[in-house]
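Researcher: Re-running this chain for the archive, since the previous output was lost when a drive failed. Same request as before.
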Amino acid sequence: MTDSYDVVICGAGPAGIAAADAARTAAGTGARVAIVDANARPGGQVWRHDVRFDGARAGPTGEARQRSRGVFGAAVTWYLQTQVVAAAGDELLIEGPTGATRLRYRKLILATGARELLLPFPGWTLPGVCGAGGLESLVKQGWPIAGQRVVVAGSGPLLLAAAALLVRHGAQVLGVHEQASTRHLWSFVSGLARWPMTGLQALGLRTRLARVPYRCGEFVRAAIGDEHLRAVDIETPAGVRRIACDYLAIGYGLVPNVELAELLGCRLVADHGPHARVAVDEHQCTSLPNVFAAGEVCGIGGARLAGVEGRIAGLAAIGALRAAAALGTRRRRARRFAQHVSHHFRLDARIHALAMPDTVICRCEDVPLAALADFGPPGAWDGRAAKLATRCGMGACQGRICGAALVELGLDRPTAAAAPLFPTRLDSLTEPPTAATM
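Model: Regenerated structure tokens:
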């Protein structure tokens, strides 16, 4: 049985919540709105529930509660802990705790967010080496980090946010190692005068980390350990320095989650780097007239931009085009900040050359770089043949980690998305779906 909605929103992060808040107007006039999200609570990565500091209350908490006020309790159906596994025409096949369901929509808003960009280097698969955002998520869900020695490394302002959260939870953060040069950092900071509120937020984070060293022009060359991480080698302007630690939180930015958009047939572009994003117009409409997109899936820009784009998409989806157009100035201002960040934190070419022949590239299938070398040089690499011969990209993450890394390294082109988008139960694909629970 298929359940029908006027608006379906995929993703309950800043963009999805803002879109739902705008679509609430439609819900008040009798329109049916549904939100699908893989997490147990709304908020996405930015407003993820923190079991220690947000309390144990049900529903959105902390900042997420403020941002989604009025959405909970409105005429909105929530599908949490639920993945979109397939899509065709104007229907989505979703899988949640109770099984599979088909959702039919008149308008669809994609707010699928982004994932961390993880680049391979010797030792990056050791237990204790985590994505900066991934370690944040673990800690918020109760992972014991108090007293543990943590090195934070990579690139971008999100490193400060990760370090501040780890310190709040009692970790001993040994240092934040930013690969961008001191010159680029100071140029970035001086430009924040155009966005004073963002500048104050950055200053607040740095103040909370006053005792944590922050070093520019440094990056991780290798992780050292046996059954667990023991130390990291840091490339510095003065040479390589080894730091003993228990955890490494590393991140080189974000990659838009465009798989669902691609499966639907939305036009993708790669105009700000090697990674694709969803192309949208001034109303956040994709190349498909009934599908809108907002937030990181349209290009990495942070929570503020995601919120503005989400509201535009929500208003446009219900036909409030004049109200959506009125937000154009705010969106352009937020997008300029995103461009300011990407310009000053672009990656050092040496980071792309860290992987050795025996460095594992595909973690799911344990495929080293050497096993991929026979399938052609960069620019002419036969990704399909490599996948068939080595199973690179065929594991649980379906190439989301290794695929993005290979694209970043200039070896491969993005692989076309195919259903199912996530590992799913066989009966979800073969059995008649159950009716959606209202």
